Each structure stands twice: as C-alpha cells, then as structure tokens.
Structure prediction request, 548 residues.
Amino acid sequence: MGKPGNARHYYLICVLLVLATVAVYWQVAGFDFINFDDNAYVIDNAGAQAGITPASIHWALTTTYQTTWIPLVWMSFMADHDMGSLILGSDKIDPRVCHITNLVLHIANVLLLFLILAWITGYPWRSAFVAAIFALHPLHVESVAWITERKDVLSTFFWLLTMLAYWRYVQQPDKRRYGYVLLAFVLGLMSKPMLVGLPIILLILDFWPLRRLGTGDKQISFNNALCEKIPLFVLMIPATMITWYAYNIEPIKKGAVFIHQPIGQRIANAFYSYIWYIGKMLLPQNLGVFYPFPGNTLPVWQILGAVILFLVLFMAAFRMMRMQPYVTAGWLWYVVTLLPVIGLIQVGKHGRADRFTYIPLIGLSIIIAWGIPDLLSRLKLTMRWRLVTHIFTVAIIVVLAICTYKQVSYWHNSFTLFSHTVQVTGPNDLAQYNLGGALQEEGRLVEAENHYRQSLRISPDDPGAMYSLGYVLAEQSKYAEAIKQFNHLLNAYPKYDPAHNYLGVILINQGHIDDAISHFRRALEINKENTDAKNNLQNALIQKQQAQ
Prediction:
C-alpha cells in the first residue's frame, strides 16, 4: 500500500477527470434516440413515459418487460420524463435529458472508481490512470452514448458504492456497515443482473489490494472471508431466478422463438472473445454497435490460438501471485466480470459487445497501472527516462480521448451509427436492417429497400427484415411484390400478426375486402392486443356493409 498522497492532488485529479470526460462526451447532449432498443426501452415504453407515479413504480417493480427485471432503470427513465417535463415542458421523454443522465452517471462512476482505488491502495496517480482509461476508452462509448444502456452506468454506480461500503466495513466491521454493503448490492441487482459476480470480486479485493487473507492480527482465513460473503451469495439466488424466468419462461408465454447456438460454438466464441476484448483494449479500432455471432465461421487456428493464449495468461497471472499480486487480482477481475456475458449462455444474436467491457477493463487497467511503475523501478531508470514515461502515459490518454470523441460522434443518430457499423463489421444483417429502418424514417425508401434486401441475403429467415421489405415495397406502390413478400413471410411465420395486418391493408386498397377481413381477423386471433388490426377490421366491415 502506498502513501495516502496530498489532498490537493485528489482534488486536482477529480477536476481533470471531470473536465476530460465532459469534453469528450458533452456532444451527446444533442443526440437523438436510435432505432435499436431505444424504442422499446423508452419511446414506446408506456411505464417509463408515465413518469413517477405509484402505478408506474408498481409496474417497474413487478414487470419483466424486455425479458429482464431492472426496476431502477425503469424508474430512472421515469425521472427523466419528469425532469424533461419540468425543464423543457415536454410530455414525452426527451433524448437530451436521457443522454445527460447517462453522462452524469458515467462521471460519478469515474470519480468513485478513482477515489476507491486511491483510498484503498494509497496510490492516487496510478488510480487516476485506471479512472482515466475507464472514462476515456472507446470501448466504453456504447455504455454511455446508448440510452438503452442506462443499465450499465446505473448498475456500475451501485457496484462501486458496494465496493466503497465494503471497504468501510473492512476498516471497522459492524452490522450497520455490512447493511450498507447489502443495500448497495441489492440496488445494483435491481439495475442489472450482471452484478451477480460482485461477491467474488470482493473476495479478490480481500486478496489485493486489501490484503486481508492470511494469519496476521488484522487478517482472516479464506474460509472466513468466504463465509462473510454468504448473505451476498444468498441475495444472488432470487436475482438469478428472476433473470432466468425473464429470459426463458416469459418469452415462451408470448410465443417467442429461441435460436440456440451449439455449445461447442459458444465455448469457442467465449475463448475468442476474451482475447478479442484484450486486443480491442490495446488497439480500439473498427468498433460497432453489433457484432454477429460467428457460428462456425471462426478459423480453427484462431480458436486454438485464443485458448492457448488465454491459458498462458491465466497461468502467468497465478505465477505472479506473491511478487505481483495486482496482476493476479486484475486478471481474475477481468475473467470473472466478463463470465456472465461471455456467451456461454447465449442471449440474442450477438457474438460480443463493447458494452460488456465497461467493468471488466478495470482489471486489465489495474495490471497496467501498477505493472509499468513496478517494471520501471526494477529497471532503475534515471529521472529523465521516468519523465519520458510520464509524457508517454499522458500521450496515451490524449490519444484515447481523441479516439473516443470520434467514436461518440457515430452515435448522433441511427443513420450515422449503423452506416459506420456496416462499414467496420463486415457482413452484418442487423446493422443492414437498422440502417434500412433509419433510411425509411427519412423517407428514402429505395435506399431502405436495398439495405433490407442486403440484410435478408445475410439472414434470409429474419421475420423483421421480411416485414420491413414488404412494407417499403407497398409504400412505393409495388403492391404485387409486397403481397408476394408478405405471403412468403407468413408461409415461414404464420403467427406473425403484423404481417397479417399490413397484408390486409394492401388487399383492401386493392379492392379485396373479404381477403383483407380474413387477415385482420387472423391477426387478432394471434394477438388480441393488436389495436391496428382491430381498427382496420372495424373499418373494413363498415366499408363492406356500405358496398352492399
């Protein structure tokens, strides 16, 4: 443990971290929603759009909307609604308010991370480097600039508060301080289930930098440290059960179709992803919002190379357990915090995601921040060379800030985001589809049609792309092609009620009222809550009656 450091250094570092983060991210204040989950999480979310009311709070606490239980996230969007209503006079959630809230939470996380590391280790400048990487790395843009990822910044806030409460408990163990640990942990679980790994991280902190494990006067055995975390592990049980229910049982009730990747492909992708994230940390280029699951397209040599390199790094980290414990702690932090999202349990069509690194990269940053000074001290460099290394460190942070500023700019709207993603990620059906949606919103139907077709070339069985292609064909008065497209979709997915509804709209415009009525009724049989189909059916029946 290092020396506590001058209080003025702490203030200076905090100010510099805030200014740098604001300089890089302030542009988000003028950004829009994007057409990738923002509609479901915010725009079309009646609970969030209601603001903070007893009914909406009850909804947030009891819903598994979007196949997850994250009541504090929903409440934070409700607060955004009320804030926008108070300041901007808006009756809908304003994207500017949401973006600023995400940025404020990110800044709070940066400061908490710095202060916790500095207080625990006594090394403020090394801790400042870790916080700067956390604040300004391009891999973290997705967690901050994407409104939907309020889950990341909010849950990390409570993650760090749990660490802070735990450090205070370690200094003076008592029930009240342990209660604060439990409270912060529960609030984190109510923001994102990824916090299930936090009790293990607290055990890692016991090893380093707290150095609690041992036989000294102020040390405890590993078994006692583990027993100390039992209440936290117990709290993980209901959180895990709710998450499992939300991801599995609830979607099945609504007729969702799961795409299960073979376990061998998931294991291969997991090892590859562990190494891929390290590579992107060191060289953050060609970052996109969506990376498709690779399936069986990964070359064997890349899989074997990733497995071997992962095992080598794992063994190397444990060989340094005594001499460089920060390496072991940092590596375990990285591995454990990535484990829930590494893809062994596949959720969605992605292979990996930038946002998954928001917490895990802290572990790798710790290895760098403590490892380089340790190496330099062993080399016994002169003051001149030490100055050079300090300048080089600042240069790295500046370069990262510039890269992050550029990466943030891609999130301005759906068109800029998915245009960039299409360019840097190779064949990407979801990026093509969402880019088509952005062009469709701008009325550029011919270009939208082209991107929907490209999406279907990559993923021919995607119902959303099939539907959107049929829609833009109809909007261009290509009715014969549109009808053919919707029939093709309904042959593959006969219970896709939006297709029945819109095919009915086309048919009624073509004068085929009876066929249209049949499709409207079929849509309502599938989904009684389809209000468009209900209204269209009523109008069609009135039109038929008038024609008789």
